[in-house]
Amino acid sequence: MRIASGQFSAxxxxxxxxxxxxxxxxxxxxxDAELLVLPESSLYASNEPASILASVAQPLDGPFISxxxxxxxxxxxxxxxxxxxxxxxxxxxxxxxxxxxxxxxQATYRKVHxxxxxxxxxxxxxxxxxxxxxxxxxxxxxxxxxxxxxxLRFPESSRLLVDAGADVLLLPAMWIxxxxxxxxxxxxxxxxxxxxxxxxxxxxxxxxxxxxxxxxVDPFGVVMANAGESPGVxxxxxxxxxxxEVRGRVPxxxxxxxxxxxxxx
Length: 265
Fold this sequence. Notes:
14 strands; 6 helices; alpha/beta; 6-stranded mixed beta sheet; Nitrilase/N-carbamoyl-D-aminoacid amidohydrolase
């Protein structure tokens, strides 16, 4: 199947961000994509403290996700997109939403590992997601799992998805710029692909706040596409045969002697 990754720089105007998302969706549909992955925080992004996010969060039936869903239906294009989800019981969630080609929400993932690092405290404005059985997507015979940005630094998150049956890891991100960050990004994405013998397809925001360089990596760690620094869409062609080939040569999932167990709170 053909999967697309769209990257752009979201700002503080949700309607303008929605228009940017729609443009990327149109481009992906014209490129015959069967799924488009879009960045984390596509609803709203800034370098303000995370405490601002409660004032801009929207429910999943709010105008942003509803607008994305309408475009998904019009284009018959499934999409995964990051938003800030309003939470009536507390701080909002950093949420990924999977929408099918009929415009129906199929699955969600609320970010588990919050970005309390490099001088930023995401937990001051975002509630962590509850660790639960992963919601996988099934498209064209492949199984897709979702994780978000900082989750990349925790290999257990990826392994939990693969243990649940994921063949492909989808990683929307807003990987903030900084010394060494681009190197961390590319190294960790390839590591997650290699250690899990799974595809990893990322969708990162671009500058000035984030690094860009959305990439798709195959189960052997080969980079199939790289978006560089500019907004736009890249494509990767995924096959079950490539996964089987690599897992036959490198049966590390079968050889391992440990399993992932959530830590007690």
